[in-house]
Predict the structure.
Amino acid sequence: MRHPRERSAHPMSRRDFLRRSAGAAITLPSLSAILAACGRPGESGGGGGNGATGATGERVLARPDNPVTLPMNGEPIPTDTPLESGTLRIYNWSEYLYKKVINAFAEQYGVEVELTTFNNMEEGIQKMVAGQVQADVFFPTTDYVSRLVAADLIQPLNHELIPNLEANYWRTFWDPGPWYDLGWRYTVPYTIYTTGVAYRRDRIGDDEAAAAGYEMFFDPTFKGAVSYYDSYRDAIGMMLLRNGVTDPNTEDPAAIDAAKDAILQMINENDARLTINGTYSKLPEGEFSVSQAWSGDIVGAQWYLPKGTSPDVLGYWYPEDNKGLIGNDTITIPRIAESPRLAHEFLNFLLDEEWGFINFRDWNGYQPPMTSIDPERLIAEGVVPESLPRAVVSEEMFAEAYVQGELSAEADKLWLDAWAEIQAGG
């Protein structure tokens, strides 16, 4: 087993890149501009697809209470499509897929596998559109799926070629399918994660942490030892919940301003730092006592503990009623795929109980939503430290938590403007 700690010092992971996505969105062409160049809803040719649209013809923003069925841009490949030989090309976030899993697939199918990585969604999509990257498999976040379909950049899936989804994964992902892609026409799930508060249990007890919740960020006891994600959606989204706003996709300027002010208060009064590696490396090393955390980051933090330090020093708070932030990443097959049948085989391979679990346990710490995974098993097998039971994500959490979906252009501007003020120090 080669844990992340044994790689180069503090490598940039897929999650690190997400934390920089706000800045990247400013320096790169906007995603809207990139996708608009591919074609508009109703056009034929280059971008001849349609996003999920409502009665007025405007694209619908998918939400758990407003799930969407994405239109079919053509038909999936036939089940009897011959298996291609040669090279399978994967386009993914850095450090998000275990090389051992890739090699096992290559050996089983007698092919080469080429892995190319991207820093953020804007870069990833732009390079595919420009023809700089040829991809057979692509890993987008859920808030981009509808736009990728609208631009006809991903192709419908043949469900007969991906039986492991129904056999191994939470029912919500295949019947009726997730809210952003009912019927899983274009996507299968990759990993799922919650967003909570990580803490050092040698500095604050579990009962104290449970009582404080989000207020841990403001506790003067931890002044100078607080980290918060450098990611505008996650940063503002969590502070909205702390302020009692339960819509993490709100377009209310007053709510967004209040969240911005709270983050600035946390930074200015408690010397909190916006950082890219607070949870998985700096908190286990002792530099931070409290950190905003994705569940996968705190699970992976055990690999960064100093030699001789027990994993029991790591703690993770997530609301007891499961009313916190939750999200998942997806796997798709681009329209430009040269080996679509081989790509289907890879999706099915990665959704296999054995290989999906190995990828999680031995490499990225981010849990696939498999029915075979439960807190008792993970803790009993030492995958997750006994002190981190809330870092294991259940299907009930997925049904009850708040999700961050695609924002409208107007709302996204409000959020980015608030984030710019935060980065400028108010």
